[in-house]
Structures are given as structure tokens and as C-alpha cells.
What does this fold into?
Amino acid sequence: MHKQDFERARRAFLKAGGSVFVLSLVMGGGFSSFVAHAGPLEVLSADQAKALLAMGRTLFPHDMLDDRFYRNAVSALDAKAAQDAQLRNQLLEGIRQLDADGTFAGLQEDARVAVLKKMEDSAFFQTVYGESLGSLYGNPEVWQIFGYEGSSVEQGGYLERGFDDIAFIPKDS
It folds into this structure.
């Protein structure tokens, strides 16, 4: 798949999911219980944490994942920022830039993507991207939701453990 085709497909996917996500936030109060579920924040305000959560959801949009999986990355960044003044300044400045065109968490999905596109080469973007990536896809609970069984090395590999039991591929007659 060419990069342009991938980008078009990604944007179409984000468009479809973004509207549902924003509507669920408005109707359900989405971010209002951030602190109650993620624990107390040391550096970030609740609004700043909401911006980072919205950034994580925009970067890695999975409707089937609960906000708690995205909050893990925000909580980890907050804890690291409490110990590292340079990271704290980087996060606070990055969030300020996210919110420059309005409250980032309240922007439409297309607007959030546009803001992130402008920032994708920044250290802030790379830091949040890396933490979100590791937090989401390194979490065994998320693996279960996606159907990934984890490493097979400890169990002798996949050869004798159903590597060919994919149900959606038709069997030859």
C-alpha cells in the first residue's frame, strides 16, 4: 500500500470513529472522571491530562478500548514529569500548543489530526507517541481485546499451537 493510500484510509477510519468518540464525550461526560479513574495527578491538571488522553486516542483510535488504557500513558507521563523538570516543561509547553486553537480535547477529529500533523516532528509529539504506543500495545489486557495471545516462545512456538486455525480464511476443498 502506498503512503498516500494508507493516509487516505487512515483518515477515513478516523473520521468514522472520531464523530462517535466526540459524541460519546459530550453525551457521557467522558473526560470528567479522569482523576477518579487514573488516580491523583502530580504535575498535570485534569484539563491537561484530558488533552493528552485525546492525543492518545487520536494517534491510536480504537473504539473497543476503554479510556483507562489511554489513561495509563497519561499517568506514566505525569509520574515521569514529576521526577524530570525538562520533561515537565516539554509536556506543559506541548499541551499549550495543542490547545492553541481551542481546547484540543473538544476539537473535531479532523482538527485534532491537523494540529498533530503540525507537531509530529517535535520532541513533545515523539514523547507522547512513544509512551502511548508502549502503554497500549505492551499491555497484555489490550492483547486479549485484540486477540493476540502474546509470545509463543515460552510455549514452544506456534507450529503445534494452532498457527493455522484462522477462521476467516476459507479452507480449500
Notes: Helices lie at 3-28, 34-38, 46-59, 67-83, 85-98, 109-119, 123-137, 140-146. The radius of gyration is 18 Å. Confidence is low (pLDDT under 50) at residues 16-37.
